[in-house]
Write a structure and sequence with these properties.
Rossmann fold, 2 domains, 5-stranded parallel β-sheet, 11 strands, about 40% helix, about 20% strand, globular
């Protein structure tokens, strides 16, 4: 397939690996932020083909995985209400709450529906004015513009029966929190290419300068990732830092400014709780006052629902680069895709799911 196969060529992979072996001299720890990148690295076997000096750790770049348990429980409470049509992308349906997941609520009679766009949820609200339609708005900066557009469109249509449960998180504040931690082991980052396609990469410049780390915006195919790793290691070996863009076919310095404008029109930056990690200042998006009528947490009074994480799950340590899935005592035993303790075991971008599926 044009524009895909050429980034999976086995001969080119070996050439990049050889080039990497020639440039690396010291041990380095690099974090790939995005869960999609993690899956490519594990599925393709690249992680085990790298020189032993290059150690990869997996970051908190799976939006499903970092959605806090209490927010899942709020979603479950909303989905169980008889007047609500609860809509979501499919990757949230098996994410465990304290007692059950959205599929269990659906099996018990809740009206839970998979949609492929937040605008599908808006159309449902138009079609069913007698019902309340709630959309589970999960994601990083990648999905925020479309979710913002759904709220914006619903307001212009005058819909009073549409709302969102907002669970948006932002990448740069999470990276800053990781780098500021006293036990930080990260020496370089592979930044998520799809996030940067929306936001550009200017906001990473002060981060790289402050913490003196290289950050390379990277795509998702094997050769993208190998080139990104090579670029990061080359900077590290020279004692240099800064931001470089490997994903030039999709990412520009300033990103998609139309998408950014609709995000900032509808959302404002707030503190956000990250599952397994805790609160990170200025790391999430919530609805502005002008759109408060579309806030499902406030509309249905579920914001007071709290929850405690399983003490067996070490997802927070994994997403901070302090451990890997096999380091968890519950991995593959008490925690599996059939009986998950945490979201990383069932998310299509979760590190635990990648290791369970491709390295079991």
């Amino acid at each position: 397939m044009k524009y895909v196969d050429e980034y999976r060529d086995a001969t080119d992979v070996q050439r990049f690996l050889q080039a990497l072996r020639q440039v690396v001299r010291r041990p380095w720890t690099i974090m790939e932020i995005c869960g999609g990148q993690t899956h490519t690295l594990v599925k393709s076997g690249l992680e085990r083909m790298l020189p032993p000096e290059v150690r990869l750790v997996h970051g908190p770049g799976c939006p499903v995985c970092v959605t806090p348990l209490e927010l899942i429980d709020r979603a479950l409470a909303l989905a169980a209400r008889p007047e609500v049509i609860f809509t979501s992308f499919g990757d949230m349906l098996r994410v465990p709450g304290s007692q059950q997941d959205l599929l269990s609520v659906k099996a018990a009679g809740g009206d839970v529906r998979i949609v492929y766009s937040p605008l599908d949820a808006v159309k449902l609200a138009q079609k069913h004015p007698e019902r309340e339609v709630v959309f589970f708005a999960v994601g990083f900066e990648t999905t925020a513009p479309a979710n913002a557009m759904a709220v914006y469109h619903a307001q212009r249509l005058g819909l009073s029966n549409f709302s969102i449960l907002a669970a948006h998180v932002l990448v740069p504040p999470a990276m800053a929190a990781l780098l500021a931690a006293p036990n930080c082991q990260i020496q370089g980052f592979l930044a998520a290419g799809h996030v940067c396609a929306i936001m550009g990469y200017e906001e990473y410049l002060p981060l790289a300068e402050r913490y003196r780390v290289p950050i390379v915006v990277t795509g998702f195919e094997p050769l993208d990732l190998l080139q990104g790793i090579y670029m990061t290691v080359e900077l590290l070996e020279r004692g240099a830092w800064g931001v470089e863009n490997q994903y030039v076919r999709a990412v520009t310095r300033k990103g998609n400014q139309h998408a950014q404008r609709i995000m900032h029109e509808v959302f404002e930056v707030r503190e956000r709780q990250w599952r397994g990690i805790g609160p990170i200042a200025q790391s999430g998006l919530g609805l502005r006052a002008a759109y408060a009528a579309y806030d499902a947490e406030q509309k249905f009074h579920v914001a007071t629902i709290k929850a405690n994480e399983s003490p067996l799950c070490i997802a927070g340590q994994i997403m901070q680069g302090l451990a890997r899935p096999p380091d968890c005592s519950a991995f593959g035993t008490q925690c599996s895709p059939e009986q998950p303790l945490g979201a990383p075991m069932v998310s299509s971008e979760g590190a635990c799911a990648a290791y369970y599926q491709f390295r079991k």
